[in-house]
Design the sequence.
């Protein structure tokens, strides 16, 4: 097996390489004066099973283009198979049409990956569990849930817990989370502005008084949902609030917003390389989940 790291999340790729006891293939990625991306794979890959690791994180379009060029170069070098590990799938939140005239951007990206000589793609906690169906190649939809559960069982042993679903869309995910922990589940009622996407928490179904409230979601972007949900839960008597999210493509304003919020701890994985995180945020390594999936096929 050969490992190629794109430039979006080199620390995660290095963790995977270290745990597999494999070096990363030497590559070069640069930009021509006219703004076009150039990649160069400096090793022979003929007959090899190759894994390309790239998060489609900001700058999203640049990292997608780099991935496509790496895939093409790998195929031209004669690789036997090409597997793509995409810990964070940029555009995956645009998985449906809200108003006429919008594209299904997640499907556009899936089509690009599916036609890039990739044999199998590994995806992680997508916003919509139907999104892997957009790909016309075999896909593995992985989850950080078991990592979070192990962390919770260690940190909150003996405490009375309750799982809260941040919205109706996350109810199935929250129900599975609560079942794995053996805890009760409460649901938060929300409204969403279909034009702006702004979400407002308006009510709670269930009892949280005197309990540690846990939330599991796929992603935190602006932080508004996290802040509003924590405030509502504490108003209803929760003693602590802890928000587990696989992905943290945090916009700049979210870091200050979350740092100043009432939430006790935010836990994200390193599916995206973070230059800075809120002061009440902890990062968990997702590489064991990705490695386990790769070892099943390679």
Sequence:
């Amino acid at each position: 097996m050969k490992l190629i790291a794109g430039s979006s999340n080199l620390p995660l790729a290095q963790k995977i390489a270290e745990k597999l006891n494999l070096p990363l293939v030497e590559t070069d990625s640069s930009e021509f004066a006219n703004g076009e991306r150039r990649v160069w794979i400096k090793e022979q890959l003929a007959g090899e099973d190759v894994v390309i690791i790239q998060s489609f994180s900001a700058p999203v379009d640049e990292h997608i283009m780099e991935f496509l060029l790496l895939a093409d170069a790998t195929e031209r070098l004669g690789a036997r198979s090409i597997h793509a590990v995409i810990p964070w799938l940029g555009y995956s939140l645009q998985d449906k049409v809200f108003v006429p005239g919008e594209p299904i951007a997640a499907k556009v990206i899936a089509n690009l990956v599916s036609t890039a000589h990739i044999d199998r793609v590994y995806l992680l906690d997508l916003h919509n569990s139907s999104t892997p169906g957009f790909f016309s190649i075999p896909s593995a939809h992985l989850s950080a849930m078991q990592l979070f559960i192990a962390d919770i069982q260690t940190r909150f042993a003996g405490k009375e817990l309750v799982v809260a679903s941040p919205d109706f869309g996350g109810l199935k995910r929250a129900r599975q989370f609560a079942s794995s922990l053996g805890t009760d589940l409460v649901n938060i009622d929300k409204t969403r502005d279909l034009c702006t996407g702004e979400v407002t928490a308006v009510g709670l179904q269930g009892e949280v008084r005197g309990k540690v409230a846990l939330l599991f979601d796929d992603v935190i972007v602006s932080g508004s949902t996290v802040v509003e949900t924590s405030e509502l839960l504490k108003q209803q008597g929760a003693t602590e609030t802890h928000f587990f999210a696989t992905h943290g493509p945090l916009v700049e304003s979210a870091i200050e917003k979350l740092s100043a919020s009432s939430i006790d701890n935010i836990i994200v994985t390193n599916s995206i390389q973070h230059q800075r995180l809120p002061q009440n945020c902890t990062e968990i390594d997702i590489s064991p989940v990705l490695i386990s999936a790769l070892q099943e096929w390679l």
Notes: DSSP finds eight helices and 14 strands in the chain. The helical segments are 10-20, 60-76, 105-114, 145-155, 171-181, 224-235, 252-259, 287-297. The longest helix spans residues 60-76.
